[in-house]
Please model this.
Amino acid sequence: MNGRSLLHAAAAAALMVAARTALSADEPIGIAVDAREAPKRIFHVVETMPAAEGPLALAYPKWIPGEHSPAGPITDLVGLKISRDGRPVAWKRVPTDMWGFTCEVPAGRGPLELAYDYVAPLTSQTTATPRLMILNWWSVILYPRGPNDDATVFAPSLQLPQGWKDATSLRGAREEGGRIAFAPVSLVTLIDSPVLAGAHTNTVDLTPGQKPGHWLHLAGESAASVAIGPEDVAHYKRLVAEAFALFGTRHYDEYHFLVALTDHLPSNGLEHHESSDNRAAERAFIDEYAREVMGSLLSHEYVHSWNGKYRRPEGLVSGVSADYQPPVDSSLLWVYEGLTEYYGDVLAARCGIRTPELDRENLAIVAAQMDAQAGRSWRPLEDTAVSAQLLYWARPEWANWRRGVDFYPESELVWLEADTLIREKSGGKKSLDDFAKAFYGPPGGGPVKTYRFEDVVAALGAVTPYDWAAFFRTRISDVALRAPLGGIENGGWKLVYNDVQPELTRAAEEESRLYDFWFSLGIAVQGERDGDSDDGVIRDVVPDRPAAAAGIAPGMRLVAVNGRRYSARILREALAAAHAGGGPIELLVENVDEFRTYSVRYDGGERFPHLERNPSKTDRVSVIGRPLTSEKP
Ligand SMILES: [Zn+2]
Model:
C-alpha cells in the first residue's frame, strides 16, 4: 500500500478512477469547514458523501498520527445531523466505540449530507484565538469505514474570517464564492495537512527558485510578532540545507513550516510529511528568552519528515492504512521521537539556532533531569514509550516518580552515546550521520517504509560492527538507576553542578513561571501566571531530596519562607542564607485546608547542571554540532 502523500489533483483523480468503493466513490467526499466563527472556537462542518443505499459505518479519527494516543477529541464533536435529499437520516453511536457511528442510508438521488460542529478548547490541536487559528482536519472529519479506506478521497474547502490569510501544504487552492477550495486529496493526506490562518501573517520563502520549495509561514497575535528578522531567517534557511546534507535526500515535494505565535495556546509541535504545525510564544522571534525556549522546536518537527513520516515503526501504522481506529504499538518511540529529539538538537546547533554554549546547556539539563528521575528505579525507558498514550496526558504531580515521556530526552542521550561510539571506533571517519543517511536517505520519495528493532540494529551494524542489540537492551529495556551519561563522557565533557543558573533554565522560568529548585531542594514551584491562582503550588518533588524528605508533597502550596510571604526570590535568598550557615529553612505550606511549617535541612545552596570539559577526551560534542555545509552559522 502506498502511504505516500497523494497531493496532486492529478494523482487524486487517478486514484478516484481506480477506487470503486461501496460508496460509489467516483466522486470525492466534500468537506466544507466554515471557520468564520473560529475566534469563538466553533468550526461548522458540512460533508457531502456519495453513498449507496444500505448500512453505513462512519468513524471519527481516534488514534492520531504523531499524538501516539487515542486523542481524537470526539467529546467536542456536537450538533451532528445527517440527511439525504433534505430528509433526516437517524444515526447511532456504536455503544462499544465512542468514535464510531452507524446509519441506514435511504434510497435517494443526492449525496448524504453530514452537518456538525467542532467546539474547541484552547488546548485542542484544532483551535483559535481571536486573531489566528490552526485547523487539523482530523478534528473535524467523519469518514466512511470500509475495505477501501485507503482510496477515500476528500475535496476540502475552507471559509475564513474576513481578512484572514491561510497557509498549508494542501495544493491547488482557488477562491470559490468566498471559500478556499483545495484540490481533492486522500484521507491520509488531508489528515496530514493542517491549515494555519490568521489576521497577522507573514510567509518567508526559504529556498527561492529551488525545488523542492520550503516556506516558513507565521501567524501571530500582532503585526510585530510575525516580523521575523534576517538573522532568524538565515538560521532556518541553513536548517533546510543542513537537513539535506544530513539525510542526502528529501521525501516531500514541498515543505511548509507553519508557526503560530501566541501565548494563549500551549507550546507544541505536530509533525507532518510536508509541513509541521508549530506553536510558540507570541514574541518567539522578538525576545531572546522566548527564542531560546522555542529552541529546536522547528528542527525537531522537520526531522520527523524523514524519521516518523517517511520511515516509522511497524507498530505506528495509523495514518498509513488510513484507518485511525485500531490502537498503535508505540514501543519504538525511542527511535521515532528519541532520534528526532537528538537530530532536532544537533541540527539546531549546526544551523545556528542554538549556540554551542546553549547546546551544551541543553544537554546538561536533559542529562541531569533524567538522572534525577526517581521512577527509573522501577520503570525502564522502554515502558515510557509503550505507555506514551498515558504519559502524554499525565498530570505534572508525581511525574518524577511516575516518569514522563522520557523517551524523548533520555533517548537523546542514548543516541549521543551511539554517535560518539561510532566516531571513536572509526577514528572520526564515521558517525551516526552515516546511519541517518542509510536509514532515512536516498532514494527520495517512495512509499512509507516501516521498520523493526532488528532493522535499526542491522543498519547501525552496517556502519560500525558492534553489539548494538545489547547496547540498546541495557539502556532502553532494562531498569537503569543512572541516566545514560556515556555519550557526554565519551563526547569529552562531564556533568557537574554549581550555583550558576543556566541561561536556558532562566528562559524557561521566564516563559512558564515554573521555578526550578529541582537539584537543590528537589521541588518545582509554580509562579503566578496570567489569570490563575497557582502561585506557590509545588508541581512536583524529587523523592529523597530535602523538601520531600521533610514531608512536602506535590500539590501543596508554599505560603511563607522563614516567616516571609513566599516568592521565588525569597526562597532563593533563604537558600543562600542557609548555605552561609543560617540553619534549616522553615517553609509554611498549605495542604488542602491545613497549614503546617516544615523544617527543611539543606545548606547546599542553589544547584544547577552544567557540562565541564574533560581535556583527556576528544571534544566530540562540539564536533557533532559543527555544520556539514560550508555555510557557517
Ligand atoms: Zn516529535
Notes: DSSP finds 20 helices and 33 strands in the chain.
